[in-house]
Amino acid sequence: MTSSTPSIPGQDTVGRRTTKAVIPAAGLGTRFLPATKATPKEMLPVVDRPAIQYVVEEAVAAGLDDVLMITGRSKRALEDHFDRNAELESSLQAQGKDELLRQVQASTDLASIHYVRQGDPRGLGHAVLCASQHVGDEPFAVLLGDDLIDPRDQVLPRMLDVQARYGGSVVLLLEVPQEQISMYGCAAVTATGEDDVVEVTGLVEKPAVADAPSNLAIIGRYALDPAVFEVLRQTPLGRGGEIQLTDALQTLATTEGEGHGVRGVVFRGRRYDTGDRLDYLKTVVRLAAERDDLGPDFRAWLDEFVAEGGTRA
């Protein structure tokens, strides 16, 4: 019998299949107060599913069936949503509501979901670092709940493919108007032989517009090498007094080492932002309008509502 040499943290990710997803969900959701006073912002409904379920479904569709959520205080509803509710299921079954029963059970059966608490809200980098024990020495994906990616745009599998071929870490980039770049992490890049793949040569968190190296914003999907954990442990507090994941990626992009190097996939598909109140409302309208069951009637009502100046009672 042959024995294999165990991998070590920071080992190159070339050819290694990613199976784990990390979803940070410890934020306070202050932009949605008072709705989020007792309800996690991740549980706010987008039509008839909580926002967090869309994110988990995206991870599962990309082959990531081991999901770790980084939670905080008052986040018990997240665990309840993905847990089995035997009383509800029995009631639906007894009433013959088979389709509702199927939908309720679907959220329970999506993936193997685990939870760990982020004791102190010390930034996205710290939230990712909280996943180190669960992830170990494997490559992994990070999905932020504020960004919903349309399931027709399979960008996460593309990112995992780029990581498997080249190693290191991969970030998702989106071209935004230059005047908006200070709202995001920003990447300096050089071209590669692939139209949608770039080499990241530097990153900066929320730069001033005049100082931004490009208009390529980092949005909420990452495919990370486990080398990021050791870098995060050594990363000083950055913008806002928090441990910034962007700062750790800057180190990985600009220094030599096992598992270092960062590439970007430039996204040109459909993304929905649920982290801002106005964009959240736009997301609900767009997704509802596209539904086969709701869309026809909803679009007809919207046409009337807009035609009447948006003041119909």
UniProtKB/TrEMBL annotation:
CDD domains: UGPase_prokaryotic. One of its GO terms (molecular function) is UTP:glucose-1-phosphate uridylyltransferase activity. It catalyses: alpha-D-glucose 1-phosphate + UTP + H(+) = UDP-alpha-D-glucose + diphosphate. It is an enzyme of class 2 (transferase). It comes from the Bacteria. Keywords: Nucleotidyltransferase, Transferase. InterPro entries: GalU_uridylyltTrfase_bac/arc, NTP_transferase_dom, Nucleotide-diphossugar_trans. Residues 20-282 form the Nucleotidyl transferase domain. Pfam families: NTP_transferase (PF00483). Its EC number is 2.7.7.9. Belongs to the UDPGP type 2 family. This is UTP--glucose-1-phosphate uridylyltransferase. It comes from Aquipuribacter hungaricus.
